Amino acid sequence: MSTMRTVKVDGEARYDICIGPNLLGDSALFAHALRGRHALIVSDGNVAPIYADRVEATLRTARPTMTISCFVIPPGEQEKTMARFCQALDALAGLGATRDATVIALGGGVVGDLAGFAAACWMRGIDVVQLPTTLLAMVDSSVGGKTAVDLPAGKNLVGAFHPPRAVIADTASLRTLPERELRAGLAEVVKYGAIFDAEFLTWLEHHAEALLAGDDAALSEAIARSCLYKAEVVSRDPYEHGERALLNFGHTFGHAIEAEQGYAGTGSAALNHGEAVAVGMVLAARLSAAMGIAHATDTHRLQALLQRFGLPTVIPAGLDPEALLARMRLDKKAEAAGLRFVLWERAGLAKIVSGVPDERVLAVLRER
């Protein structure tokens, strides 16, 4: 009996999120997602040596006459640049990719964002199939069609909405994931409970040890539930004109931290994306309490759960609150009337709050 679970994303662009072990070798699944004669596998230096040959073999089984090439970037957020994006376009040109070509995004969020943006721009848009290999990418960046690269001024400032043709999340790939990256992915899992479902937060509290131990059943359940929450929102609001913005809980603070630290690479002491979001969610919860929107007891609960997952919950030392505030003013979620944040009224119930005064934000950033 198959252990694959499927979450359907409806709306303008319909596609399936397939979740289960050993899916990178499922040629029938790949055949269903492929439409043309060319495929470019985009990956990074950590993932490609482990999985690229397997994916290429699966593609050749699915489509024996397909022309396939591979474009590999160094790992790390600091590689999600316009220069790497242009190199990906050059790789598509070298492949001779036509309008029915497919970009295969094999890796974490950096690869998924970069590959998806290249697919969005090549000949004004070709298919991308997301093959996320990190927990964070499985539950967040691979779903919904947000693609982008970073600029020195800020994170994800250049990009496009480009929904994937399919998302194939092979949970077996999580067995090769470094512990730090697994924990970072759990931050985004916690986010779904924080903004949509307090009962899911309770489930995470009860299954924290199993998730950290890499239990297949617990991880599959967490991934499927997270994807279901996101799929429901994306189906209703594909271009983030309304409720989809709730998915940015913790991200305004988190992106500012990432940008101010310079998008440091793998192995750096700087926070990665999931870690920065964990800090950002606690800051958003504290801002909610400071503005009288929520009770501090919910903040304490959220902070305790994130700490159980081994995630940071305070701003790294050495970051200037004024500099972080300046980063937030350039954030995509800022408005002419002032800063806009996703805050919460309580666990499981988030809201968008516009025109938050700078002094309120600075007060939270200055707290230690």
Query: Major beta sheet, specifics?
Result: 7 strands, mixed
* Total count of domains: 2
- The structure class reads alpha/beta
What is the average of the pLDDT values? Answer: 95
Gap from first CA to last CA: 52 Å
Kindly state the number of beta strands. Answer: 11
Distinct helical segment count: 14
CATH architecture title of the largest domain? Up-down Bundle
Short description:
The chain is α/β, with parallel strands linked by helices. The protein has helices at residues 27-33, 48-62, 82-95, 109-121, 135-141, 179-196, 198-206, 208-212, 216-236, 251-261, 273-290, 296-308, 321-329, 358-366; strands at residues 5-9, 15-20, 38-44, 67-73, 102-107, 127-132, 146-151, 154-161, 166-170, 339-346, 349-356.
Give a description of the structure:
- This protein is of the alpha/beta class.
- The chain folds into two domains: 5-175, Rossmann fold, CATH 3.40.50.1970; 179-366, Up-down Bundle (Dehydroquinate synthase-like, alpha domain), CATH 1.20.1090.
- The chain has helices at residues 27-33, 48-62, 82-95, 109-121, 135-141, 179-196, 198-206, 208-212, 216-236, 251-261, 273-290, 296-308, 321-329, 358-366; strands at residues 5-9, 15-20, 38-44, 67-73, 102-107, 127-132, 146-151, 154-161, 166-170, 339-346, 349-356.
- Strand 10 (339-346) and strand 11 (349-356) form a beta hairpin.
- It is globular, with a radius of gyration of 20 Å.
